[in-house]
Amino acid sequence: MSDALSDDGSDVNQDDSQEDVMTPAELIAKLEEAWLNEKFSPELLENKSEMVECVMEQLTHMEANLQRVRKGDMKASVHRMEIDRIRFVLSSYLRSRLQKIEKFFPHVLQKEKSRADGDPSLLSPEEFAFAKEYLANTETYLKAVALRHMPPNLQSVDMMKAVPEPCLDSFVFLRVKERQDNIMVEPETDEQREYVVDLEEGSQHLMRYRTIAPLVSNGAVQLI
User: Fold this and answer.
1) What is the mean pLDDT of residues 44-52?
2) Is residue 134 within 8 Å of 105, Cβ to Cβ?
3) Sign of CA dihedral 113, 119, 125, 130
């Protein structure tokens, strides 16, 4: 299917002035990687708004090309299935992010507001606006149906304490894309001690997310 996508989008991102030229097939591979990482990570990951915009532009380009294909051509059915597949992956990726924002909204907002200048943004502008509105609506709802009926000393709620944080100690499956040496693994019981492992390229592991979270962020490992 990637070949079909490349044929349709061969004139996309061909500007010689660009430093990073990505083919349509590489773009979709990046989308699938971001989708799986977001789907299987317990926390909200860095937003990929630029990638999302590029994928949407590519879909528009493919739809335009599809209109020029004769009806009944087998090629049209193949391209339509590829477009539907990409739309599903993109929708699932964005839906996973929204579900995490709704589940962890005060912690997500606090992390976004406290990030240092130059650090990658956790939320896109649209997601940030959604998270703030979700927080405001939740507080309004709680006051309307419950808090106003409470004694005065109980008419406030600390959202940071009321909403659970992501469980970074959950275990995830991963595939190593780049060899990693001297990864410190925390003990599972009091009787065990910390130990160091080397992650070979192409190997697969089941590990605590907290241990490999930086490797997910820099693209050295892929959640599966």
Assistant:
1) 95
2) yes
3) negative
